[in-house]
Amino acid sequence: VHGEINIHGTTANGWDFVRDLFKENFAQERDLGGSVAIYYQGRLVVDRYGGWFDQTRTKPYDNDTLQLVFSTTKGLVAVAAALCVQRGLLNYSELVTKYWPEYGQHGKENTTVADILSHRAGLPIDASPFERYLNWTAMIHTLEQQEPIWLPGTAHGYHALTYGWLAGELIRRVDPMRRSVGQFIRDEIATPIQIEFYIGLPSDQEYRVSPLDGLSSGNMTSNDSTTVSDNEFNDWRTHQAEIPAANGISNARSVARLYASLIGDVEDNKYKRILNEEILKQAIKSNTPQNEIDLVLNMSTRFGMGFRLMDESFPSLGPGVFGHNGFGGSIGFAAPTKMYNYWAQQQQQAMADYSRASRAPRVVVINERDPIKSAQKLVAWLDTHYPNHKIIQMARIKQNQRIYNRVVFQTAQGQRNMVVFDVNALYLNNMGTATEMFSNGTMVRISPGTGSTPTRMQVLY
User: Fold this and answer.
1) What is the phi/psi pair of residue 396, to 5°?
2) Span 197-248, pLDDT tens digits
3) Who contacts 304 (Cβ-Cβ below 8 Å, separation ≥6)?
4) Sheet holding 249-250, edge to edge
5) Which of 128, 171, 185, 294 would bridge with 301, disulfide CB 3.0–4.6 Å?
6) Cβ-count burial of 177 within 10 angstroms (0-12 exposed, 13-18 middle, 19+ buried)?
7) Which of 351, 346, 357 is nearest to 51 (CA)?
8) Secondary structure tally for the chain: helices H, strands E
9) Confidence class for position 443, pLDDT limits 50, 70, 90
10) Alpha-carbon distance 177 to 132, whole Å?
11) Residue limits of the Beta-lactamase-related domain (predicted)?
12) Residue 330's closest CA among 79, 78, 72, 158?
């Protein structure tokens, strides 16, 4: 540990165990900097922060620090959509084309608002250049022209980035003032309950944002194939853009207060409840059939109207737990039966534990297109590098004319790991960019190499 553990903030009586657990993260060097906040029965009972602002370890992570929270932003967008429903501007059951006529083309004509919010729209992947993600109009046009991967409403798959533009454009279209989703949230949600949760960071707040660490620092190379580029999400241009699925910037007490205000008044009725009981019930009702597998994550997930439904993750908190987690360690949720709201964010160091989704998977090149031979080589590589491993999940995927195997496994030491086996590297030079969401929540863009230039793997989410 580098010097004294600098943990600060407040903890109400009976909640000291949270402070102790939080401090232990830093004692064990699991986190570089972070914060945690809990509301209970409308009152802030935990507000802790500590560690370091960045790797220089010269500036503390304090109560003024802001943090990029990636997909925890999706919960805020779900609140904005529900507020539009509450005001009669939007209806979950209506066709998207009622509000956004240009969307109704290329097989998307019968998509409903609920399909978009519950990841059933069939547009989970977009391989646009990252610069286009900073241009709202360009991304909306791109999505209007896309064909769905599956018939909308018939299946679900995590829309890691596209969820934000799809839901955000609906909010913008139904808003009488035609504000951007970021401005709508500032005016209608953040200001009334006095929180900081930005989609589109004001330039004068940039200095407060703790930079992400560990997304591009790992030495993840194999067979002369470099895998990771610099991380665009530390760029001020990304912070000021509106990418509503993934670039929200906030702090612990703000996200905790947001969720507290969904289930009741907070701070002795100083801040009034945002959603009424009927609208909240609609927003957190599952729109995912029982045991339906997420076609992108290859695992079971359940979604309401933008919220992840988390009963299975937190069984001790009673039924109805909802919220959203994000890449890098952030999570925000509410447990209505306990009147309990929680938010945590870690500005963490690079880790090998991919259940924390702290960096992109390693890429191993296998120059073999035959599925049987490539599988044999895959197993041989794992046996050589990870003796006595246990495979947890394996998937062979063909996307954008690319074929690769994704393997999640447990090492003999009990560590969870992931490797992507690129089984057509010889053909990359003639193919376009592919984008893929991995089962740990990491989205990457894979770009072809040319000549001596290696394949490039770039963390997006």
Assistant:
1) -100, 125
2) 999 999 999 999 999 875 433 322 222 222 223 478 899 999 999 999 999 9
3) 78, 117, 118, 283, 284, 285, 286, 287, 322
4) 67-68, 249-250, 197-198
5) 294
6) exposed
7) 346
8) 12, 21
9) very low
10) 25
11) 20-338
12) 72
**Distance, CA of 321 to CA of 246 (rounded, Å):** 22
Measuring CA to CA, which residue among 67, 124, 81 is closest to residue 331?
Answer: 67
With contact defined as beta carbons under 8 Å apart, do 94 and 112 qualify? yes
d(CA 215, CA 229): 9
Residue type, 96: V
3-state secondary structure of 350: coil
Strands 221-222 and 225-226: antiparallel
pTM for this prediction? 0.76
DSSP 132: H
CB contact at 8 A, 329 and 344 = yes
Q: pLDDT tens for residues 158-210?
A: 999 999 999 999 999 999 999 999 999 999 999 999 999 999 999 999 999 99
- Render 378-424 in DSSP notation, one character per residue: HHHHHHHHSTT-EEEEEEEEEETTEEEEEEEEE-TTS-EEEEEEETT
What does CATH list as the number for 1-215+231-354? 3.40.710.10
> DSSP letters along 240-304, please?
HS--TTT--EE-HHHHHHHHHHHHS-BTTTTB--SS-HHHHHHHTS--S-TTPEETTTTEE--BS
The structural domains of the chain, with segments of one domain joined by +, span 1-215+231-354, 355-459
